[in-house]
Amino acid sequence: MHLAMTKSVFITGNSGGLGYGLTEEYLSLGYEVYGLSRRGCAGIDHPALHDVRCDLAQTSAIVPALEALLGEVRSLSLVFLNAGVLGDIRDVTDTPLADIRAVMDINVWANKIILDWLHPRNLEIDQIVTISSGAAVKSHKGWGAYSLSKATLNMLTQVYAPEYPHTHLCALAPGLIDTAMQDHLCDPDEVDADRYPSVKKLRDARGTDGMPTPRAAAQRLAQVLPKLKDYPSGGFVDVRTMDTAS
To answer: What is the pTM assigned to this prediction?
Structure first.
C-alpha cells in the first residue's frame, strides 16, 4: 500500500523542548502541524498550526482532545509521540510507587490511549515515532522511574508495530537536548551530582555540540527520519548511533 505524503504532522508535548523545536521545524518545511500539549504553543502564530491543550496526566481527557484536534483529519505524514516527564532523580528504593505510576501514565499509557484512538480510524499514517531515550537500555543511579518508563515505551512501540502494518513505527532516542529538563538537572539545589554522577556528565555537555538546542535537534531528526525505514518497524534506534554509522 502506497501512502501519499500529506505534509501533516501530529506532535504531543509541543509546548516546549523537542516538541516545540519539531513544531518550528515542520512549519518551516510547509507542514500542517497538529499539537497536543498542556500549555500550547503560545510563542508561535502560524495558520498551519492547530493546537489543543490537554494534560496527558489526566488520561480521561485525552480522547476528547484527540477528537477535537484530529477528528476531521484523514491522513498524517508523521506522528511524534514526544510528550514525557523525567520524574525525580532519586534512588529507586526511595521512590514511592505512586511517583513511578505518575511517570508511566504520561510516558507510556498516554501513548497507548493515542495509538488505540488512531488505530480504528484507518488514517493513512506514514511514520509513528515514539520519543525514547538511551536511558531505556542503560540506566544510571537515580533514573529509575524514567528508565522504567522508556524501556516500557520501547516495548509498547514494538508490540504495536504488527497492528499497524501500513505504518512504520520506531522508538527513537534523540540524544541529549538542551531543554527545561536540563535546567532542573543542572541546578545544584535540585540534584546532587556527587550522589548521582551521571548528572555531572550532563552538566559538562551543556553548551557544547553534544547537547544541541531543541530546534537543532529537530532539524537533525527531520533529516534522519527517512533512514528509520531501513530498520524493522517497532524497533529502537538511537540517533547518535545513526550519525556515527552514516
So the answer is: 0.91
